[in-house]
Write a structure and sequence with these properties.
Layout (H helix, E strand, L loop, with lengths): L3 H12 L5 H8 L5 E5 L6 H6 L2 E5 L23 H10 L8 E5 L3 H13 L4 E5 L7 H23 L5 H27 L6 H10 L5 H15 L10 E6 L8 H9 L2 E5 L20 H12 L13 H12 L3 E7 L3 H17 L2 E7 L7 H17 L10
Parallel strand pairs: 1-2, 1-3, 3-4, 5-6, 5-7, 7-8
The structure holds iron/sulfur cluster (SF4).
Iron/sulfur cluster (SF4) binds next to helix 4, helix 5 and helix 13.
């Protein structure tokens, strides 16, 4: 078995390999394999796996990719991730991708799908509408049709017919993946010093660019290490980070939050990999329906979901309580409408509930976080000085 440090170093390389080398190798190993890129937040990767493909996350270039051409496509008051994804495409770093999926989160992603179509990137470009109606017979059926479109596109490339057996096998693999990631978070809830948030980020992000079978092996090895009593606790408060579900903060910022006196015990950085809570039924003779039902009934809270009967502010408050966190850090990408429009809803609720929070904005390519670090440091100090207890939700 590998040392934990070696595993983390390999994940660091994988997660920021902007040439997607492992995916390319995987495709070349066997005829008929296809690679399909997907934007955040979430796409049911099981569908692509069952069709003989590999879903690869497109989370932008972060602070590793200089934007020259991508800026020409977007005005200044738009977030950064579409520019870096364009830059990667224009620089032919995704030339081995067969198709691209753009989940419906916001107008920026919708427009990016149009630009990809105009440029004829890949063999197909799919703007994927997710249901906002949570009735299985309406929104659920619509969602199944959307997944069938994707399977149809892939079949036109490789001729693979997806059977219920294949899909159930893929669902089981991703169930395992989600379960292993969830165990890492559960261990960190009590022992966050065993693995830094920066390490968790690299480990989970690596899973978006390699085969799920390989990622499951990595996660199993990580767990063997962190089930041991390693590391030593530091004087830090526990926080939950929310709002960074699409454009990703630079790794330096993820690290700076913990260096400034916080243990991040939950977050939504790589929300898509953790979107479904619990298992999807892997035994159904209608597996698309099982995936659809899981999205409707078992999704994590998200700014991309308007589920009026299950308000997201109370779901986030519940996470804070369950994780024993002392507060929340709202981190939104600059100009990210879904995140920034939700912020007042969360913050008004948290004022009522008595949950401490701070809020700031970031951009994926900005690597100067002195002000944010000071803000987080002051937040953590204020909790340590005046309220060194986990948040207790004031139900009054
Ligand atoms: S960062 Fe926000 S606004 Fe930008 S593409 Fe993502 S969800 Fe849309």
């Amino acid at each position: 078995m590998k040392e934990l440090k070696q595993i983390i170093n390999e994940c660091k390389v994988l997660s920021f390999d902007l040439n997607f080398t492992r995916a390319k190798q995987w495709k070349e190993e066997k005829p008929g394999r296809v690679i399909v890129g997907y934007m955040p937040i979430y796409f049911p990767r099981e569908v692509i796996h069952a069709a003989g493909g590999m879903a690869v996350g497109m989370f932008g270039g972060g602070d590793r990719k200089q934007i020259i051409k991508g800026d020409a496509y977007y005005q200044s008051y738009i977030c950064h991730i579409p520019r870096s994804v364009m830059e990667l495409a224009l620089d032919k770093q995704m030339d081995h991708f067969d198709g691209f999926i753009f989940p419906s989160i916001c107008d920026v992603i919708r427009n990016l799908s149009g630009i990809f179509k105009q440029h004829k990137f890949g063999k197909f470009v799919k703007y994927m509408d997710f249901p906002q109606n949570f009735l299985p017979q309406i929104g659920g059926v619509f969602y199944q049709q959307e997944m069938e479109h994707v399977m149809h596109y892939i079949k036109e490339i490789n001729g693979v017919e997806v059977t219920p057996e294949k899909l159930n096998n893929s669902i089981a693999l991703y169930n395992k993946n989600r379960k292993l990631i969830s165990e890492i978070y559960d261990i960190r809830q009590d022992y966050p010093w065993r693995l830094t948030m920066e390490d968790v980020y690299h480990i989970v992000r690596a899973g978006t660019v390699i085969p799920v079978e390989e990622h499951n092996e990595i996660l199993e090895q990580v767990l063997v290490h962190i089930r041991q009593n390693i590391g030593s606790p530091q004087d830090k408060v526990k926080v939950v980070v929310s709002g960074a579900f699409c454009e990703q903060p630079a790794v330096g910022l993820i690290k700076a939050i913990e260096e400034a006196g916080c243990y991040v015990v939950d977050d939504d950085y790589m929300l898509g990999s953790r979107m479904i809570l619990g298992d999807i039924d892997a035994t159904s003779n209608k597996p698309l329906e099982a995936i659809s039902n899981a999205y409707i009934k078992q999704s994590q809270y998200s700014s991309s979901i308007y589920d009026v009967s299950n308000p997201k502010e109370y779901r986030l408050a519940k996470i804070v309580e369950n994780r024993g966190a002392n507060g929340v850090i709202f981190a939104s990408a600059s100009f990210c409408d879904p995140s920034l429009l939700d912020a007042p809803i969360f913050q008004n609720a948290f004022n009522r509930l008595g949950i401490r929070y701070i809020a700031f904005q970031f951009s994926e390519n900005i690597n100067q976080f002195k002000v944010i670090k000071e803000q987080v440091g002051a937040f953590s100090d204020s909790i340590k000085l005046w309220e060194n207890e986990p948040a207790v939700i004031n139900k009054a």
